[in-house]
Amino acid sequence: xxxxxxxxxxxxxxxxxxxxxxxxxxxxxxxxxxxxxxxxxxxxxxxxxxxxxxxxxxxxxxxxxxxxxxxxxxxxxxxxxxxxxxxxxxxxx
Length: 93
Description:
Number of helices: 2
Number of strands: 0
Number of domains: 1
Helix content: over 70%
Order of helices and strands: HH
């Protein structure tokens, strides 16, 4: 696997993990809610701990998505540079 392809893989993996993490957190929040749309917790401590953990998880997910997008952007730039070098080599002078 060359450097260009590894950039694409390094971009797709965190992007997918970030999207799945956001989906999982939102689904947990939805499943905790009752008919009135209010979230139900066993105690105050579990509410504070769960909310804090979910907030940190969402920030991590957003960071993973940004990292994935940057790696994919880097992949496209490397691919353009590689194609430009191939065109310059094939051009007769």
